[in-house]
Amino acid sequence: MRTDEAIKADVIDQMLWDDRIDASKISISVDDGEVILEGTVPSNLARWAATDAAEVVEGVRFVQNRLDLAQPTPSDATLPADAEIQSDVVRTLGMTPALDGQRVVPTVDSGWVTLEGNVDAYWKMVYTEDKVFDVRGVIGVTNKLTVVTTHRPDDEAIARDIVEALDRNENVRVDDIDVTVVDGRVMLDGVVPDTLTRSTAHGVAVRTRGVTEVDDRLVVTFPG
């Protein structure tokens, strides 16, 4: 079992190595293998890259990403106004083929976007948020979208599809994961050996047809 101090040192080194991340304003703490990231970063890319960097370090059980996007300074005179951001969000979503026809209503307050409405697949809810973060001027997103499916498979079929997809994936031992589905809501339970397995299983559930929500309860543990 690696010590928290050793894990922290490797997380710091990983972030200093990763050219996507400016770690100068990131505070890192580790408690029993759980990494907590706090502070500010200049972009959403850097925010998610920080999670990626921490997750690959040996001994990391979970990453809590509490990083905020840095607020624009008064000198940033070219930053778009809320109305322009809203217009760009609407245009971006309208030009994204996978989101064509989805009923998404964005509102913007000081660069912070709130998404309301519905989509017909859970992965589209996640994807919509990712696309909005790419819009210039967006500093944060509150995702209130709901998933409304028109032809949802029954819960047993959804669970079977997830288990079969996990079994096909070389990064997952399917016997480590229990899959339960109730009204389209997926619960993942079990103990997995690393964060790659955990994120892979979560991704499989997100992309499965008929899923309306994913409750990831997987625990990462390491031999020691």
Describe this entry's structure for a reader.
The protein is of the alpha/beta class and 224 residues long. Helix content is 35%, strand content 27%. The protein has 6 helices and 12 strands. The protein has helices at 4-17, 44-55, 82-94, 122-133, 155-168, 195-207; strands spanning 26-31, 34-41, 62-65, 68-69, 103-109, 112-119, 140-143, 146-147, 177-182, 185-192, 213-216, 219-220. Strands 1, 2, 3 and 4 form a 4-stranded mixed sheet that branches.
Low-confidence stretches: none
| Named CATH architecture of the largest domain | 2-Layer Sandwich
User: What is the overall number of helices?
Assistant: 6
Mean pLDDT across all amino acids: 89
Structural class: alpha/beta
CATH topology of the largest domain: Histidine-containing Protein, Chain: A
What gross morphology would you assign? flat
The SSE string, one letter per element, is: HEEHEEHEEHEEHEEHEE
Q: What is the helix content? A: 25-40%
Q: Please report which band the strand proportion falls in: under 5%, 5-15%, 15-25%, 25-35%, 35-45% or over 45%.
A: 25-35%
User: What's the β-strand tally?
Assistant: 12
Largest sheet: 4 strands, mixed
